[in-house]
Each structure stands twice: as structure tokens, then as C-alpha cells.
Amino acid sequence: MSDSISPQQPLAEMAELARILGHHHRLILLEHIARDEQPVERLVEASGLSVANTSQHLQQLRRGGFVQTRRDGKRVLYSLSPGPLVSLLDALRQYVDYNHGQIRQLLADSEQQPMRLEGISREELRQRLQEGGMTLLDVRSPEEFAQGHLPGAINIPMADLEQRLAELSTDQELVAYCRGPYCVLSQNAAALLRAKGFKVRRLDEGFSDWQAVGLEVETSE
């Protein structure tokens, strides 16, 4: 039997670590623990959570190897585990700052090009879909599209869009969408298509918002 590690195993481990970090209460606790070793009582006060809730999140972080404990009399003190966790938290913060910068740039562009941010609301889109005569364009990755998309949408990732313009009809209005209101892919797609002469709008929200309110979605096998 081979002892080699499957190429997917590190990705699965990364996904599990991301799942544990994927709760803002745990990130709040890590922010406080990163400053100094902390007892549970102080973390409860700093986070505003209940003792039970704080303890539950700390146990998740401990199981993921993000924090470690030691006893000081009757108190249990939490500190960061060895490893590049501070760098990881800094990287997440930098990415959030990058996204905010992208949004600020979009808003600045909209002041100079008012038509660039022309959108369509979820309710208007639902009505227009019933009437027909419109093409939904999903510019997310094929993997995201396969997991779920708006009914009847076609998938052309933003990176491939300029090379695949021939697949789109100029006779119908296009509505581009991506992950959510802060995803810039649909904004960039709308700008590109408009520059190429297509009649296009962008969904004000995105797939995550559409799905969150319980509207119909399709998946691809």
C-alpha cells in the first residue's frame, strides 16, 4: 500500500481549518487572545458572549489547533498555538481591506461614469424572467456555477468573457451576476459588454442573496 498523500488531502485540511475560522465570534476571540494570554472570564467580557457560547467557540478553536491552554490555579488561560496564525489573521484582514478598496473604487468610478453601475433589482429580475427576452449571465467559476445558479443562466467566467463574446446574442438584454453585491466580477463584465455594444445590466445583489431568500436555483451534475 502506498504511503503517498493524496493531492486532495491538504485541500481538505485547509477547508476544515477555514470552516473553523469561518465564524466572526471565533475571530473576535482570536483577536483578543493574540494580544495576550487570556482567561475565559476576560474573553466573555471582551466578546460580549455568554460563558457557554464563549466556551463552545474556544473548544472549536482548540480542536483546530489554533489555541492552547494552561492552568493557573483554578483559572484556564488561553493563548495562541505555535505557528503562523498571526500572519494568517493579518492576511485575512488585508484581503478585507482590498475588497473595501475595490468597492470604494467602484463608487468613485460610478461618479464619473453613472451608467456603469446601472443595475436591476431581484424583484424586477424575477418579473422580467417571467416575461422572457433576457439572458442571465453567470460570470463565476464553473465549479461555483455547477453547485448552484439562477434558473436558465449560462456560465461564462469573467476571465473567458472577452474570448467568448460570440456565444452571446446582441438581440437580447443581458443580466450579469456573480456572488453578491460586493463581487466585482459582474461589474467588470457589464463594463466590458457595454463597451462591446451589448445591452447589459448587472444584478444588484448576487447568487448568495438570491439563494438566501429561498428563490429557485438550479445545479449542474
TrEMBL record:
CDD domains the record matches: HTH_ARSR (cd00090), RHOD (cd00158)
Every HTH arsR-type domain range: 6-100
Domain called Rhodanese: residue spans: 130-219
GO terms assigned for molecular function: DNA binding; DNA-binding transcription factor activity; thiosulfate-cyanide sulfurtransferase activity
Name this polypeptide is given: ArsR family transcriptional regulator
InterPro entries with a match to the protein in the record: ArsR-like_HTH, GlpE_sulfurtransferase, HTH_ArsR_DNA-bd_dom, Rhodanese-like_dom, Rhodanese-like_dom_sf, Thiosulphate_STrfase_CS, WH-like_DNA-bd_sf, WH_DNA-bd_sf
